[in-house]
User: Fold this.
Amino acid sequence: MAEIPTNLTANPPVNAEPVEMLLNMGPQHPSTHGVFRMVLWVDGEKIVDVEPHIGYLHRGSEKLCEGEQYHQVITLFDRLDYVANFNNELVYCQAVEKLMGLEVPERAEYVRVILCELNRIASHLLYVGTIGLDAGAMTPTMFAFRGRERIQSVFEAVSGARMMHNYFRIGGIKEDLPDNFEQLIAELLPLLREDVEESDRILTFNEIFLTRLKDVGTISAEEAIDFGFTGPCLRGCGIEYDVRKAQPYSIYDRFDFDIPIGLDGDCWDRHWVRVREMYESLKIIEQALEQMPGGEVVSSLGRRLIRPPAGEVYMRAENPRGEIGVHLISNGTDRPYRLKVRPPSFCNLSAIRRLLTDSWIADSVVILGSLDIVLGEVDR
Amino acid sequence: MQGLAPLLAVGLVDVIWMVVSLLAMFTGLSIVVLSLVWLERKALGRLQLRLGPTRTGLFGLLQPVADAIKLILKEDIIPNSSDRAIFWVAPVIVALSAFMIWVTIPATEGLVLRNLELGLFYITAFAVIGILGLVLAGWGSANKYGVLGGLRSAAQLISYEIPVIMVVVAVGMLAKSLDLRVIVAAQEQIPYVALLPLGMVVFFIAGLAEVGRTPFDIYHAESEVVGGPFVEYSGAHWSVFFLAEYINTFAIAALVVLLFLGGWSWPFDAAALAWLPSLPDIAWVGGLLSVIWFLLKVYAVIFVVFWIRGTFPRLRIDQLMAFAWKAMVPLSFYAIVITGVYLFYDWPAWTLTVMSLTGLVVVGYIVYRKMMEPARRIAEIKARQAAQVAERRASRQAS
Amino acid sequence: MVPLVAFQVLSAALFAIGLYGVMARRSAVLIVMSIELMLNAVNINLIAAASHLDGMGKWANFDGQIIAIFIITVAAAEVGLGMAIILRMYRNRSTVNVDEINLMKW
Amino acid sequence: MAEIILGPGNTPAPSLLTQATAGKVPGVITTSSEQLFGMARKSSLWMLSFGLACCAIEMISTYMAHHDFDRFGVVTWPSPRQSDVMIVAGTVVKKMAEPIKLLYEQMPDPKWVIAMGSCATNGGPYYRSYSVVMGVDHIIPVDVYVPGCPPRPEALLFGILKLQEKIMQDAKNSGR
Amino acid sequence: MLNSVKGMMLTLASTFQGLRKPVTREYPKAPTPVQPRFMGFPALTWDNDVGEPFCTGCMVCIRNCPTQCMSASMMDNPLQQEGQSHRRKIVDYFEINLNRCILCGICVEVCNFDAIVMSHEHEMSTYERNGDRVALPALLEIGQKYQRETNWIPPTVLAKAKKDAEDATKAAEEAKAETAAAVQEAD
Amino acid sequence: MSWFLFIILAFFTLAGGLGVVVTRNVVHAALFLLVSLVAVAGLYLILFAEFLALVQVLIYGGAIIIVLLFAIMLTRTAEYPYISDNKQWPLAAVAAAAVGVVLGAAFLDSNIPETSPNSPAFADLANSLFTTWAIPFEVASLVLLVALIGAIIIARTGEDNR
Amino acid sequence: MPFEPSIYASNWTMVALSAIVAVVAIGGMFFANRILSSRRPSATKPSTYECGIEPARFNWYNINLRFYIFAILFLIFDVEAVFLFPWAVVFLEQRDLGNSIPFYAMVLFLGVLFFAIIYAWRKGVLEWQK
Amino acid sequence: MAANRHAAHGAEAEEEQPDYSVLTEKGLQTLELAEELFKDFNPERGLLSDLPQVTVEAAGIADVCRLAKSDPNLGLKMLLCLSCVDYEESFQLVYFLHSLEREQTLVVKTNLPYEDPEVPSVSDVWAAAEWYEREARDLFGVTFVGNPDEAPLLLYEGFGGYPGRKSYPFYEYREF
Ligand code: SF4
Ligand code: SF4
Ligand code: SF4
Assistant:
């Protein structure tokens, strides 16, 4: 057998690189958080390269906003980052208010802050649930959603909807809090704290969870800034940047709260920052409830058609996922001329290639989970 | 009297009896599987503060039945890129191995199909065949997730097979037999869990991995490889895998009970039962009681399995393999060595317990340290956080 | 009953099949499989002998079985090593085709 | 981009047995067996885990402890091969239309589709968008439309009940 | 290990809790009560005093709806000619495609006649794409149900009453203050 | 009865073996090998060598086939579906047939006095294995060790080359 | 236990039958599925599932060599188990006969194999890092 | 409309100077620094509500950004947002740069012609820019010379037109 001469040119090249496999994850994949899609080049269990694909939820919101009146745009903003609806409404309303130079009644500001912080908790609870699922644990999800459900029922009592509230108005809020709000929130807060604590206890320091997340998906602070990270993802890298503190909007300068930060910028740090943030949000809510004044909640604007003066404005706020920015251009008509949103998860997600390369296939899932993206906002 | 005769000794009537008993076994196992499915969903439900199935039959008891019927009624798709023969054969191999080991697993003294002298060896030998089925399933469906899952399953299952075999050997040494009935009988006095807790822990953990349950369910992890080797299977084929998985879970639980928890032996002897209103002194009553006792133990073990499933996230493949080869295999070696030494030098029983507990604690501590090692920075983070807070407070007070 | 010679003939046939495989196949993996067939033929022979023949001299009647165990052990080692070599070959040459492997150039 | 197929929803195709015995076996037997099958089908609706947009969050809520889809026997499976129901929860974007169609195709028969939310029903708030499919029924046949934006979990549960009714109705009809 | 054990204890505790008191609400048997403000699908209200809808068909809501899911037309009100009603125009035809409605509540906000409410109806699954195109009679029916269930009082009436009451209290206070002043003066 | 069993098992053994050497799909070849080996285990059973039968299933059916499958997956190339025999296959067939015939004839011709099949007790076998055969037993461990080390070295250097 | 041919025969017949019965039962299930299931074949239905995307080129997946080394390890230890099982049953018997060779032989054997693990460990093949 | 042109064409149409007093001291400083730094690129100062703004030539945008990022005084290490505005006669790209240390944002604007808008890519300055640029290319048809990825980001291959532009119509919804 051995004496048969071989014509090597007819054969595959010597030392041919073993071909990598192309693995497609998404748009329908249980752990791509909606319809994100990534194409992984894997070698064995290692990821060699990643090609992210977004746009499977590109609904053209920015364009649609140009066709809606100012008060109708709020409904579209509700649906951008559909886990943090109040926060989205807030930043939009503030942008228009800034454009119009409108003062918001004190009480309305407090109501807004309380609801936004509740929504932040709800959003982080969803995150805890999904990271649990991604890492393979089901029960934390259930615990987390128990808390979410409680928050949502308070939302329902306040705004009439569980998710798409359309409650904030330009210059105030739609109507005052319901009469039993105090009682509701007094019931809610201890339960919520318990839910947060339980989902924290079962997950954060669990050994397996820790080994899965620690030192995975590490990104340095410089790179994170380069990619435009904001929110918990940036704070996980040890940079203390929070719009609520850095450029306080609304009435955030009146509260005493800390900005949790991580150290290494890995998945676990991001997780930890979020978990701590929930406690901080609870703190803010408690303070806000204490300080809340009475009075009107709708500004003098009333039900008039909103026609801001021509001009341009950029408003930013801290969403659960990071800094959201609204670049609003008005030409004096009743519809925005151009509305551009700076979605936090868009920037956070754009680093996915850098984060995933050279990690395990199994890590891709937790890394993606720890970025906590919401596709509605990424794709708009 | 050796020679041709014995092979002819199995007459037609015997064969028919055997077939009947095997069919009974099959039915029994199917019912067990249904009960397990129900139990799993209910237990997980309660664990997660919800109800689990309630609307199909009383307490949702018919839920697994409905699932089973529906699966049979489901279209069975064979993907056209798959290797048809392998795609067909794989579930059969898995189910075959799952079913065949039950030939020799006794439910009580008399309730066993055939008692093999080499029982434990037989079980290990046929359990290995099942691994093949999973690899072939992944391979045959020619799906990337499937291949990935198949490979993961192979790597995982073969790695955890070693500790299982070793611990089984250790138990065989203690009982001086590979016959499961003898092993149970040897535990009349003390169940082996008291002698060899190490063995029980290793066997249970490796057993979890063998049946691919959380935290070792990486080969069919939904969030990663969307079902792994089973991704392309539908309808009846898929339900065969499902069946096999649950039969295997049950088998592992049963083996834990048989090897370490004293099987069907009661913790108290017959005299303790004397207070009962004069039990009819018939053999089958005692048998029935011991079967019930056995089943109770098995279901308790299975509940622990579900409980673990409800608590833990899953590991990553490299961590899993490292755990198998760096913790489980050395531990199982250690189990054999200490058992051997204990038996050979006739040391008192408690020495074995102490030795095995020592091993367990040492390795457990090392693993704990290793796993918590990345958390070393957590304290640092907290300190940094506190410093920052203090600083901010100070600056605020200053201003 | 089945006489010894039946097993022996069977083993001869299996051996021949394995031999054919070794000679005719081009894929190294398949050659290893064929070698396994040949080893099995030998084992059949050994065990049949152990079972049909009484012990002779210092040989106990089950020594055939013990030798078979050792053969299986060696076969396992052989597969492990052989496959490793084949893999190495594949990594270098991108083929497992023995005809195309010029060992001299390796 | 998507051609319009307006289907009457999905009805299970008759099995070989029903085809073979059509008319030969008393209707009572076929009807009752079909009803049994219908009952099994309706109480074991496994769902393709698949969420598109905001509605998906409410769908997940429906799975969770407060509403507990598991009570109805609804569980999720990640692969279409093992699922019976596809809940299209969210906005169907043109880019996503092809994958949805393919996933639907890959589900084994009998299968059902629930369009959850106004987006999946007819475009909802995005009815003027250039990139949204105005209703998932442009691509695949839909059995039950659950209105709302997003529908409350109760509304989705109600949709499941409606689907169960439909399955039983189909079973009755096919037995005849 | 330690934290794992803690986690297992937590789940065990929750098992017992789950056995005793699961958080699940058994939907068809015991549906979750909706909050009073809950915004279900919009419906039209019925003026019980006069026996006609509040809606005049003025199309304000239709123009403001972000999804354009409503349509309506108005007609002269026959009852007004009979002198029973103060509305000169009344709705003739009204349709909402509830499948499209996104429950935003803008229509309610902009309506000047208290004619439209967000009812508590939310379970409206259908088998057809346009199965929830609801026309006037059905809308009124839903609205009436809502009115019955919540003892609905038109918000303007409510606001007016509130204002009146406030005025009254203010007047009373003033009067009181005056009397007090008078008393003081008298002192 | 035992002839019947023997014929069935022999059939599977040979058919599996033939499958291994003629099939074009390597994975199918592995499956055929599995069939053949399990049938051989059956043959051991009718020879009363139950321990050996189980060893056969454990080692061959389980471990070796898995290793083979792994190797196949590691080396799967585009050529596999078209894998063919080399050109001298008729020659090989003739040679193999000749060897088979000669061996068979030799066996048929031999005249060893045989007893009826008997079985050693498992314990006897075990005792003998660890007393009489203790040295080969130790050597076996060394063989295994060497195989492992060799495999690791070979496979790892192969990896470094990439 | 003395060798009892009839028990032996019935034991292994049972084992063989169990395989046959299992295959038949599974086959019956497949058959029932075949005739009872509702089928609606279509051209795209059997296409390979890949998260809703048409499967991309399928270069055969070359698995990591790690997997292979684990397979070898498994093979070696499996073979070892073959020796362990008989030993487990008899070494005490031999000790009682005054022969401690089996015990020490096995200790040596285990030692050698444990060395194998240590070797693999030191070589880093258990680490999975590239 | 007039207002837009006003904003778009900056100083030429500008009648009254914006009121720089809304800027904080830091903001004013930033503005001056930036003007100084970008003096090769015809900077025009301006104001975006309360943020300092500099308008530069399109061709120099990449260099401007590089300068802005590397300059230790400005330290604008972060690209917050890149938005593209269609003024129907021209496009305007608005870069929001942010410095974390100084907690100060600077807006850099550049105008592009409506026909064949082309601008150097800043994706090698900030990694974040890559996706923003691809998005702007998808929606507005602006070409970014040097952006490594050619594939559409939000839209799919074969989508006709640039939906972000004002000239792209809304979808005409028809109920069916
Ligand atoms: S129907 Fe509403 S909630 Fe549902 S996906 Fe559409 S916009 Fe989101
Ligand atoms: S509901 Fe109100 S706004 Fe709408 S048409 Fe009727 S009266 Fe006008
Ligand atoms: S609630 Fe909103 S979407 Fe629904 S009809 Fe009223 S305005 Fe239209």
User: Anything to note?
Assistant: The interface with chain A takes residues 50-53, 55-67, 128, 130 of chain G (CB under 8 Å). The CA atoms of residues 85 and 117 of chain G lie 20 Å apart. The pocket of iron/sulfur cluster (ligand 1) is lined by residues A 79, 164; D 53-55, 90-91, 117-119, 124-125, 149-150; E 102 (CB under 6 Å).
